[in-house]
Design brief:
With 306 residues, the protein is mainly β. The chain has a single domain, classed as Beta-galactosidase, Chain A, domain 5 (Distorted Sandwich), CATH 2.70.98.10. The chain is built from two helices and 26 strands. Strands 11, 12, 13, 14, 17, 18, 19, 20, 21, 22, 23, 24 and 26 form a 13-stranded antiparallel sheet that branches. The chain has a five-stranded antiparallel sheet with strand order 1-2-3-4-5, with no helix packed on it. The longest helix has 10 residues. The radius of gyration is 19 Å and the shape is globular. It starts with a strand and ends with a strand. Keywords: Calcium. GO terms for molecular function: aldose 1-epimerase activity; carbohydrate binding. It comes from Gramella jeungdoensis.
Length: 306
């Protein structure tokens, strides 16, 4: 039987929604005040998600790594924080000063409310909601973002529902930024279907497409990755010594986008499904437009095996 508890911390940023199943020896944790980010996924003693600890050190880690952050209304970077839409220029607040970019959207540090939760023997479901009134000059477009986490045996589904609550259209993209804990990264294998990836400039902004630099599946070994791939199929998998994961991220377009990053620590890997490319507000690659009063849905399924 799945159960859900809500725990409060002295620092409310570290409040947790905890999902557990004693029979499965399963525990998961979501931080609603850190963008409803998934910070723990532990099955039978095996840690899959590389999340943060519920303390000040954890907050510092999240600020630097964006562990499992929800990326909206765009993933990755907007060059110089500037874009033009419908003949109007907009300036976003810079949060990556070293490269002078806006990074990972606006909701990664926002507080979501728990709208609904339910449990049964087969699953647990939690619905989180965040409303934005369009109060920021750089993005004056009201929206309602709803996230639904559904936990079943060996699977987590994350559903995104975006409603345009304004009177005009706005540009957007969605992404998810999970890190996976991999103590033996060099002997792990990453698989996905792609023929091209982006070349980037010194600001990590795509400049052009190029042929894939390696064949897939790739045995990671000492390979350093910080690349965006234009995938032909919205799926990817990672095989480690401890577990295998499959990620299926639905896309209404013939191509989708996958960012992969291997930190210098070599003890985890970020595998980030995205609906659009970095700097999509400017290069338009994968960019979506949401008309007034319209809703868009996107789904990511994470399955894990041992």
């Amino acid at each position: 039987m799945y159960k859900i508890t809500i725990t409060k911390n002295e620092n409310p940023l570290l409040n947790e929604v905890i999902i557990f199943n004693k029979e499965l020896n399963f525990t998961s944790s979501i931080f609603p005040n850190l963008g409803a980010s998934l910070q723990k996924l532990d099955y039978n003693g095996i840690e899959i998600i590389d999340g943060i600890s519920a303390n000040d050190d954890g907050l510092k880690t999240y600020k630097n790594k964006y562990n499992s952050a929800i990326l909206f209304p765009f993933p990755n970077r907007i060059s110089d924080g500037k874009f033009e839409f419908n003949n109007t220029n907009y300036n976003l607040e810079i949060n990556e000063p070293a490269l002078n970019n806006r990074l990972h959207g606006f909701v990664f540090n926002k507080s979501f409310v728990v709208k609904e939760k339910s449990t049964s023997k087969e699953n647990a479901k939690i619905v989180f909601n965040y409303k934005y009134k369009g109060s920021t000059e750089g993005f004056p477009f009201p929206y309602n973002l709803e996230l639904t986490y559904t936990f079943t045996k060996n699977k987590v589904s994350l559903n995104f529902g975006v409603l345009n609550e304004g009177t005009t259209a706005f540009p957007f993209g969605i992404g998810w930024h999970p890190y996976f804990k991999v103590p033996n990264l060099k002997d792990s294998t990453l698989a996905f279907e792609a023929k091209t990836q982006y070349l980037v400039n010194k600001k990590m902004i795509p400049t052009e497409e190029t042929r894939l630099k390696f064949k897939t599946p790739i045995l990671i070994r000492d390979t350093f990755l910080d690349d965006c791939f234009i995938t032909e199929k919205s799926t990817t998998s990672l095989k480690t010594d401890s577990y295998t994961i499959d990620i299926n991220f639905s896309s209404k377009k013939p191509t989708s986008f996958l960012q992969v990053y291997t930190p210098e620590s070599r003890d985890c890997i970020a595998i980030e499904p995205m609906t659009c490319a970095p700097n999509s507000f400017n290069n338009k690659s994968g960019l979506l437009i949401l008309e007034a009063n319209e809703k868009y849905n996107w789904k990511v399924d994470l399955e894990y095996y041992f």
